[in-house]
Design goal:
This protein has about 260 residues and is of the alpha/beta class. Helices cover about 20% and strands about 25% of the residues. The longest helix has 11 residues, at about 205-215. It is globular, with a radius of gyration of 17 Å. About 50% of the residues are buried.
Amino acid sequence: MKLPRQECAATVLGGPTTVLDLGGLRIVSDPTFDEAGPHGYLTKTRGPARTEDAVGPVDLVLVSHDVHPDNLDERGRAFAKAAPLVLTGPLTAARLGSPAVGLSPWTSHTVARGDGQGDLTVLAVPAVHGPEDGERDADGHVNCEVTGFVLSGRGLPTVYVSGDNASLRVVAEISRRVPDITSALLHAGAARVPAKFDGRPLSLDSWRAAAAAAVLRADVVVPAHYDGWDHFSEGRDDLTLAFYEAGLSALLRTAAHGSWVDLRP
């Protein structure tokens, strides 16, 4: 079944993969469309709620990083390469090639909106893919280069797409620089790989996701990246409890995968 275009909404398809309809544009973040099965040292436990064909033509793909298959698997990579534009980090863009454009943190790219109301601005923001004190690679990254994004435009909600960020310090910096974030797509799930950083989380755990929502002062929080892979150690119930205990249940939108969530307050 085709996903009908929405005015201002998001739907999580499983894992991190999310479709955002914003400003007349169809945007897909971190596409993963492979069926369940092994991917090297990671195992996918569930396929996407909708296929590439159901998503239909896409205007923009956001790739937080390309070196882990739970964020860009084989069919997801083919999907991204077929898009008119991919925005990602500089190192990832160099590996992907055309149509990828690399953005360093705090640089932006504008895309003409499909509704004729000007441009959508995509601001690249930092992310830390593991604990703050984790060993950094030659490029200064924990685990690998990861990029988050902030989407904004006239008359639209300002949407933060976290990518695989585990750092509340980064969230605080983003909130300080972009104080008007309306909606947040947070990669949660407390991803853990025993061989990395003593098994500490590589993405937000549930209580840190609630804390990030509070720091951002977002009105709408859409969680992603919490199921579909066996290295995600926390799921929807953990998120629901964490937001409840933080008094933030009213912000959390955990619709069934493939169902739309309005991004407006």
